[in-house]
Design a protein that fits this description.
With 413 residues, this protein is mainly alpha-helical. The protein contains 18 helices and no strands. The radius of gyration is 21 Å and the shape is globular.
Length: 413
């Protein structure tokens, strides 16, 4: 079994993803609903998500490259301590200022799939060092599948607020969900304490040894690939932002359902996505990363355009599950491709650029979607998102056509 062949450090990184994902799954369902219950408007909720995503993208731009030089462990420890603080703040107060600070620091409601928020590039780069290049697509798909399964459990736990309403009346019923974030962060810190840090990459000392004449040309070639990926990922991020963060809110206002319905729906969608992630890991070995991603994503785009036209909650729920499996199930394969574009000492940089190129544009979507929902345009954000994602897929195919039919072949280690 693949998991059993991994090093102890790699297994612990995957377990940490699982522990984080439970709290994230609960809040991707209930955080927007919690704010709605506190009488926040849709534009206000969207603006908060935008601010949090912009903060995350800004931090991600720096931490990945820094971890290439200073090691990975300290950055992940810092992230978990921030999660502890954010969870305690949200547990203690529902005042707008407290929730704004907690949400921005904690990334609440974003559906990070167990990732370490702005420090996710550090985690992905560390994992890439711990596995062989040939195993990287399968390991990354396993990693994302574990995150989706944890979020599925969290989404089921998101049904608790209506069930504990007699003990904790009103919006107080949502507060215990932040305990899941707190527990996940404390467990991750416990695991991190047992791991040795990664070995930072060092530049060769100027001892008179001749420089590698291919180094500069390799760096320029890698930079061109990263720049291409940055541009097309921005389109994908814009599309995700219009629908992802406010999906639970859309189900609530479109069909007048609450956590008891939306939580199990999100859980089923995440389980289907986890299964899809494992399937994609097999497809990439046979058809290559690009071809596998494009096939799944084109089908997902078709479902996305049909989803807002669903006549009732049941039909919309089925379409949402299918679309989630097709679209998000490719995340691990795309991460593996990104790590394979550069040499080992630049993987923190590659992971950071990939994260920023998605998260910064994604931050704009919730604000505009919230304004459209507030004005009664409940279908339009889906069609706008579809347009951005169609452009992304066309450019993805054009820019990576040379690898479209080949298996993943990473750059020199």
């Amino acid at each position: 079994m693949l998991y059993g062949r991994l090093s102890r450090a790699a297994r612990f990184l995957i377990v940490m993803r699982a522990t984080r994902s439970i709290g994230q799954g609960a809040l991707v369902v209930d955080f927007a609903l919690y704010l709605h219950a506190l009488h926040w408007s849709a534009p206000a909720i969207g603006t908060l998500f935008m601010a949090a995503l912009l903060m995350s993208a800004t931090m991600a731009l720096f931490v990945g490259p820094l971890s290439d030089i200073r090691g990975r462990k300290g950055f992940l420890c810092a992230y978990e301590w921030v999660q502890v603080g954010a969870a305690l703040l949200a547990l203690s107060s529902a005042r707008p200022a407290a929730l704004v600070i907690a949400a921005i620091l904690g990334g609440f409601g974003h559906g990070l799939n167990g990732g370490a928020g702005p420090f996710a590039p550090v985690e992905l780069a560390w994992l890439s060092e711990l596995v062989d290049a040939r195993d990287r697509p399968a390991v990354y798909n396993l990693n994302t599948a574990v995150g989706f399964l944890g979020m599925a459990l969290g989404a089921l736990l998101a049904t608790l607020p209506p069930l504990v309403g007699k003990l904790l009346p009103g919006t107080l019923a949502y507060r215990p969900l932040f305990l899941l974030v707190l527990a996940g962060a404390l467990l991750a810190l416990t695991l991190l304490r047992t791991l040795p840090d990664s070995v930072p990459y060092r530049r060769p000392s100027p001892d008179g040894a001749p420089e590698d004449p291919t180094s500069d040309s390799l760096t320029r070639a890698e930079n061109r690939k990263l720049l291409k990926l940055f541009g097309i990922n921005a389109l994908n991020g814009l599309g995700i932002g219009f629908i992802g963060p406010l999906m639970a809110y859309w189900f609530a206002v479109r069909f007048h359902h609450g956590p008891l319905s939306i939580g199990p729906l999100m859980s089923v969608a995440l389980i289907a996505t986890a299964a899809s992630s494992l399937l994609v890991g097999q497809l990439t070995r046979r058809y290559g990363v690009v071809r596998s991603v494009l096939g799944m994503r084109y089908l997902g785009l078709t479902v996305l355009l049909i989803l807002p036209l669903a006549p009732n909650f049941l039909v919309a729920a089925v379409l949402y599950v299918i679309r989630s499996a097709l679209n998000r199930g490719t995340a691990g394969a795309r991460q593996a491709l990104n790590m394979g574009l550069v040499r080992g000492h630049r993987r923190g940089l590659a992971a950071s650029l990939n994260s920023v190129s998605i998260q910064a544009p994604r931050a704009l979507g919730p604000v505009f979607a919230g304004l459209l929902y507030h004005a009664g345009f409940l279908e339009l954000p889906f069609f706008i998102a579809g347009g951005f994602q169609a452009a992304y897929l066309i450019l993805y195919r054009r820019l990576f056509r040379e690898t479209a039919s080949a298996p993943l072949t990473p750059s020199s280690e």
